[in-house]
Amino acid sequence: MTVTYFITGANRGVGFQLAKQISADSNNVVFATTRSLANATALKDLNRSNLHIIEYDVASPLETMKKALVDPLERYAPNGVDIIILNAGISKKAQRSILQTTEADLQEHYAVNAIGPVKVYQSLFPYWSKKVNPETAKKIIFVSSGAGFINNFYPFPTSHYGASKAALNHITRHIAFDHTSSELDHMKNSIIVPLNPGLVATDMAKEALETFDFEALGLQPITPEESASGIIKLVNGLEQKDSDTFFNYDGTKFSWTVTYFITGANRGIGFELAKQLSADSNNIVFATTRSLANATALKDLNRSNLHIIEYDVASPLETLKKALVEPLEKHAPNGVDVINQNAGIAKDSAKTILQTTEEEMKEHYTVNTIANPESAKKYIFMSSSVDLVHNYLPSLTSHYGSSKAALNFVARHVAFDHTSSDLDHIKNSIIASFNLGLVETDLTAIFLSKFKREDLPIPVSSAQESVNSILDIVQGLKERDNDPFINYDGVRPLGSLFVYISSL
Ligand SMILES: NC(=O)c1ccc[n+]([C@@H]2O[C@H](COP(=O)([O-])OP(=O)(O)OC[C@H]3O[C@@H](n4cnc5c(N)ncnc54)[C@H](OP(=O)(O)O)[C@@H]3O)[C@@H](O)[C@H]2O)c1
Question: Are residues 139 and 37 in the same domain?
């Protein structure tokens, strides 16, 4: 049995490459649309009997669009359509601020990039839902854009274009949602996926490529050939569990939401982090506690996006892994974005090394250092300046300080390990160690009781103040910030240390 594709905006750019590469396999039937048959010379020149060109403007009325399909689809697709790729789109003079955007710009882009795909979906639905094809699941691929992200807003002006793609992203999610309640199994199991085709050197991207230094943002333009071959590989490999996921053309996933994992979140700084992050309902927050029974403060928050996990970082690795399976598979289908390794202890550490026992050292090393690092895009270790080896802070911190020094090394090694990862999003992940400053929590209570505030070298902050400044810093971390040691106030005291090491 053949697989039948329907691709919009296929006379040039990414759409043309998709039609060309997919129709190169004579088992496929490909419908390729163009706004004007007269301008579709590249498609016609392919001269392939399995490639059918249709004049179809997504800005025209729904009835006109439906009419354009009847003859070619009844003739060449008696079993209906399997895979729809909605690629047609426009971007005109979008590099401007919202103040400079006109109503006409907004209307035009909304009509083609958001309302257009809805009408394509509506006009094709009878053909797409027609019959089960044992060769493939039913799929709809929306060629969207990272410019339409709201949570992970791209930091350059895309104005009416970005707004229309944000609307498209919502539409794709709604279509995926609509199908979950379908009575037809092949519709219920259909796969709806929006994707970003990459920064592609096409007519559309010309203006943006001339205006912005994308390289400074770590973005390299790719060719339409590369984009299309990535999209085809991705589309072929899609499974039902991938539905409602935003993909990049190279198969990597973007999250709709940002998922945080915070250890030691039942009190102190960890609790404050969980509280503040889960206040934004776009975030998914996993908050761990050693004892569910004692996690009343977390439970009292009573938030549906906050998942509490019983998790003792001193327990064996296998136990830790087991504790994650059920909650993470259920509530984090796209994985974890930011891990905040916050759990830590400091028991009776204001003493000399001579006074320190082996048991104290082992206990602190187990909790503060060995805790299991999993891969994520951002990994924040809650460390402390008492652990600086080269810039040793002259204070009594004993087994606590040494366990945090070991933790700093682990953080740097994780950053180093990721530099050679085969996965781009892990290679580009951000690993940072934080010195929280002196924060008034249970952990510092004994230490603070031994000193007068005015004798301390730095001010004492509340958990809330500390978390406010950490969140500001974490949100601003960029790829180039990988592997820093950061103070609660944003200062990076180890800058000179790194120079020192490299000049050895
Ligand atoms: N290039 C990038 O870097 C980039 C990045 C992110 C997302 N995208 C998205 O990728 C898709 C393809 O972009 P591209 O770079 O290949 O653009 P392109 O080279 O400008 O091609 C756009 C295609 O869409 C068609 N189209 C425009 N308005 C239409 C309408 N009213 N009805 C039917 N077809 C229409 C065009 O047909 P005509 O030839 O008749 O105009 C053309 O075939 C777009 O959805 C775009 O938003 C591109």
Answer: yes
